Amino acid sequence: MRALQFPEYGPAAVLRVAEAPEPHAGPGQIRVAVRASGVNPADTYVRAGRFREWVPLPLPHVPGVDAAGVVDEVGAGVTTVRVGDEVFGVTDYAQMGGANAEYAVLAAWAPKPAALSWEQAGGAAGNIETAARVLDRLGVEPGTVLLIEGAAGGVGTTTIQLAVARGATVIGTAGEHNHEFITALGAIPTTYGPGLAERVKALVPGGVDVVLDGAGSGSLPDLVGLVASPERVVSIADANAAAYGVHWSRGSGPGADAPALDGIAAAGALAEQGRFTVPIAAVFSLDEGAAAHELSESRHARGKIVLTP
Ligand SMILES: NC(=O)c1ccc[n+]([C@@H]2O[C@H](COP(=O)([O-])OP(=O)(O)OC[C@H]3O[C@@H](n4cnc5c(N)ncnc54)[C@H](OP(=O)(O)O)[C@@H]3O)[C@@H](O)[C@H]2O)c1
Questions:
Q1: Domain Enoyl reductase (ER): where (predicted)?
Q2: For residue 27, what is the domain's CATH number?
Q3: Of 36, 244, 258, 261, which shows the fewest CB atoms inside 10 Å?
């Protein structure tokens, strides 16, 4: 099959499309003929070799953790889908890839909502899992006031909508050019950087209950200052979080939280009700994988970066 892959660790230029062995669904898994798959910042870290000592990968490696497609193989024990069903989901996180290809094996999935295009569904599941994991950890419920640092990216746009669906009020930080964009998703926008506490106080005089650091830009001391205690902040992006008493949540690897895979079906149901969508920053072909990684590395993509086979 055709697959995006890198034969050695390095910059985006190491990516190329080449033939790769077809994967097969193991017990509890399914294989899909991929219609679209996502690009996440973590894919660029894996490609750059940032995790090579933590998880040594056999090379060449096929990146990508989320995909949507048509089921063409059903593993032992799977009773919820049949060949021909349209689904979206994630690969086994432990393998750190496998989605940016003609065929991918999914470890968790849900029916593809008709309300989402293939491109939207293909890039959705990883961010949904992350958002659901963080919202559960922070105990977001009706009436909670949540601040999201980095609200305009893939995780931010997803978290805004899932938090609003839980009945929360969401303040999102983003560049000014993204304020209208995140307002349309349900957030109250403000800018990030110096003076955040004063801006937040003007927007919500009662203050903020909980915070997601989805940017990892070094702002944790300021974010911790917005809430009653550091346990009310979760970072998904700052490896130094513990130094501030903040939990660093990840879905795989040593110290990982349990992945919130049930969130995928729940967000699919919200999409069918018109309450969840996936803003697309850009769609590339597999052959343009290097450009897709470079856009992710710019750290200013608006929404999700997607690849089509
Ligand atoms: N631990 C986990 O489980 C997990 C899972 C997924 C992602 N992550 C991490 O979470 C981070 C976000 O992922 P993503 O997929 O949402 O990335 P993304 O789509 O690339 O997000 C980029 C967004 O970050 C915003 N941004 C850039 N600099 C910022 C700053 N200084 N302050 C606030 N916002 C800023 C940009 O908004 P503007 O253009 O408005 O500046 C842009 O919209 C990444 O570091 C990623 O590695 C962790």
A1: 10-307
A2: 3.90.180.10
A3: 258
Report how far ligand 1's centroid is from the alpha carbon of 24 (Å): 32
Residue in 47, 93, 133, 155 to alter for ligand 1 test, most ligand atoms within 8 A of Cβ = 155
Please tell me the distance from the alpha carbon of residue 120 to that of residue 110, in angstroms, as a whole number.
14
CATH for 175: 3.40.50.720
Whole-number Å distance between alpha carbons of 231 and 237? 16
Query: Whole domain around residue 58: which residue ranges?
Result: 2-124+278-308
Q: What is the pLDDT of residue 303?
A: 92
Extended strands (E) in the chain: 2-5, 16-19, 30-39, 66-74, 86-90, 103-106, 108-111, 145-149, 169-173, 188-190, 210-213, 233-235, 247-248, 280-285, 304-308
Please write the tens of the pLDDT for every residue from 56-95. Answer: 899 999 999 999 999 999 999 999 999 999 999 999 999 9
Ligand 1: residues with CB < 6 A are 40-42, 130, 149-150, 152-156, 173-175, 178, 192, 214-217, 236-237, 249-251, 296, 299-302
- Whole-number pLDDT of residue 54: 83
Total count of domains within the chain? 2
Tell me the CA–centroid distance for residue 38 and ligand 1, in Å.
Answer: 15
Which residue owns the Cα nearest ligand 1 atom 3?
A: 250
Please tell me whether residues 215 and 288 are part of one structural domain. Answer: no
